[in-house]
Amino acid sequence: MTSKILKIAVDPAAATAPYEQLRAQIAGQARTGRLPVGFKLPTVRGLAEELGLAANTVAKAYKALEADGVIETRGRNGTFVAAAGEAAEREAAAAAQAYADRVRRLGLGRDAALALVQDALRAAY
Predict the structure, then answer these.
(1) pTM for the full model?
(2) Are residues 49 and 95 located together in one domain of the fold?
(3) Nearest of 25, 24, 19, 20 to residue 54 by alpha carbon
(4) Of 23, 31, 46, 104, whose CB neighbour count within 10 A is largest?
(5) Any residues with CB less than 8 A from the CB of 110 and at least 6 apart, and which?
(6) Number of domains into which the chain is organized
(7) CA 3 to chain centre
(8) Residue 94 sits in which domain range?
């Protein structure tokens, strides 16, 4: 566990890689507002020590979160939760539109396209 606000539990026996568990938990907490915009995350080294992970594992998760717009690094000031909710929704909407356009061009019907999305989401979650 970490601070009173940031709650992370990594299961080394899980099928999901530790960096992905960390990424998903931070992203989820930011998306739901449990981690407020502007919340300062622990340093890579500090969180790695706290969770018993390699620093590279935490750095990989932070890098993925930054690429997704969930967090932002402000140089020596640290890493903070970004205002990513709206950006994430816009990006997801654009991806959904691109998918809809693609399946239409491929000649797939609505039911088949939705079934593929549901299968992909089941696999991802």
Answers:
(1) 0.68
(2) no
(3) 19
(4) 23
(5) none
(6) 2
(7) 19
(8) 85-124
